[in-house]
Amino acid sequence: xxxxxxxxxxxxxxxxxxxxxxxxxQGPRFTYIISQLKRGLRVFTWLSKLKKWMITIYDIKTLSDxxxxxxxxxxxxQSLVRMYHATLKRHIRVKAAMEREDVSLTVPQWTKDKNRxxxxxxxxxxxxxxxxxxxMLGDQMGLGKTASSLxxxxxxxxxxxxxxALIVCPNRVMEQWQTEIAKFTTIKKNRVELVGQRRCLTxxxxxxxVRSPVCKGCKFYNTCKxxxxxxxxxxxxxRALQIKRSQISIVGYSTFRMHNNDxxxxxxxxxxxxxxxxxxxPTAAVTKAAFALTESLPRKAVVLLLSGTFIENRLEELxxxxxxxxxxxxxxxxxxxxxxxxxDHWGKVISHRSEDELKRVLNGVMLRRTVDQVWxxxxxxxxxxxxxxxxxxxxxxxxxxxxGVLKEIDxxxxxxxxxxxxxxxxxxxxxxxSGTVKSxxxxxxxxxxxxxxxxxxxxxxxxxxxxxKVVLFTRFSNKIAPHILDxxxxxxxKVGIALSVAGGIPKKRRDQVLKAFREDxxxxxxxxxxNMAYGVNxxxxxxxxxxxxxxxxxxxxxxIARVYRRGQKHGVMVYHLITPDSMEEHVYQLLISKQxxxxxxxxxxDTSAKIGRGASxxxxxxxxxxxx
Length: 628
Fold this sequence. Notes:
Blueprint: E1 7-11, E2 18-24, H1 28-40, E3 45-47, E4 52-56, H2 60-69, E5 73-76, H3 78-98, H4 120-132, E6 134-137, H5 145-160, E7 165-169, H6 174-184, E8 192-194, E9 197-198, E10 208-209, H7 228-231, H8 235-245, E11 248-252, H9 253-258, H10 260-266, E12 270-273, H11 285-296, E13 302-306, H12 319-325, H13 333-340, E14 341-343, E15 349-352, H14 355-365, E16 366-367, H15 371-374, E17 381-387, H16 392-414, H17 420-435, H18 451-463, E18 470-473, H19 481-489, H20 492-495, E19 497-500, H21 507-519, E20 523-528, E21 543-546, H22 553-563, E22 572-578, H23 583-601, H24 621-627
Parallel strand pairs: 1-5, 6-13, 6-16, 7-11, 7-12, 8-11, 12-13, 17-22, 18-20, 18-21, 19-20, 21-22
Antiparallel strand pairs: 1-2, 2-4, 3-4, 9-10, 14-15
Helix pairs in contact: 3-4, 4-5, 11-12, 16-17
């Protein structure tokens, strides 16, 4: 022990990047050391079972400098020092790769089509991700994260060996991933498996899902007679079989959660999480499955997380994806919470701290490029917020419904059943009325049932280019979309043919509608739900209309990105329709606060939806009631 009477012993007992400290000191000096280390190190946690303190390898330099300045002896094994320097060198190489403007790169098994080659910024992302091995790609929507991730997969196989990949994505884009693989690579289609999807081996059905009532080709429920001896009637056995026989397995997040053990045992070399915001709650089953898979992977496995918006609602959503990318970087969730979040007496997050430090952590594992940075010859994007005051009939219905909602909330409160979910459901009811009265009263014959539809009709007839195609988005595909379609079909002599893909129609039918909208010069208006905001390219349109607002800015950006993306040759105009003095104003303010939080940690493009600015704020039950 040195003259100060304090020694810190560093040792690595378990875990790749965890370091355990034994502090030899007593009295006030010990208390001082603990308080200073808690303040200075990102991760500093007491493990009662080991009776040691835990830090991460990334804090070794900070610990060493602090010990030197405070005359405290630090003892560390040479293997630990070598491990720190190796980690540091890897991060330096990744940082250098991310700062390049272009790199020369040959991607094996890539298509020879000259129109489908990687852009310079995509090649930079590929090199950075393959160098890092555990990486978050946060490029803005419309910049080709799918193509970049496929190139990362192929280059990783070439550099580190291996030939199996797992793509975890929302169910709605599984087939889109299969299409993109066929478009950008030379991998054969029979090497790609949509896990959870039934295939008709007779060829009489192009595809069939588990919920399909009966296979028309075989008359077997959820199976095929040619494969019946293998599949039997077990969904679990069939999905396990699909995982084993594929080179690339594409799974939905629910299937990933339920069949995590089969996936872990399969030994994938590349893991890609698309729309990684599904992995945002540390205690959720799907997040735990992602943690377990990451922990089971060998060192040479590559993990890639894709999302244009890693924060949708709260800062806490950053913890899970960063931990999947770098499992030891932030330590346990309790360390993250105490380090970066400020909570009140009840545990509710009220603000943030150490934001600059968290930005540095994030920038070390994530690469984000915006449209402004990589698309220099882009056409202009303009936005306009249109206020649509309710008419007398719509306003009377809304006020009556509002009083009923408040009474129901009062009854729930008296019964002790009040909660955010119940209030959110009642909010949805008021939001539907803000769009049109017909959402709750389909038989209404009132002329002023929807101020938005009347204002939109004026825009289509008087202000918009009559040759420009219009894409309209609404959240309420079943309640509002059919009435929008009826309204404009009755007036199609002036506004053109209105088409709808808002409902859950099959992909084949959806593609037919999109083709008709693109090729028919008379088809002017396309009505979409938020499901159409993913994996669809509509660059031939000129206008985007947000008939109502989603709850998160990412969905708003996804809507715009369907039209305003690479390949768009015309300027794009975006209209946001808002009903003043209604619940929509609350959703509008909520989006402003979420945009502000996102802009704190991520670069924001001039082409992102900018509906305003405000202070980030989480809502309580009482605040939700006040909003009504």
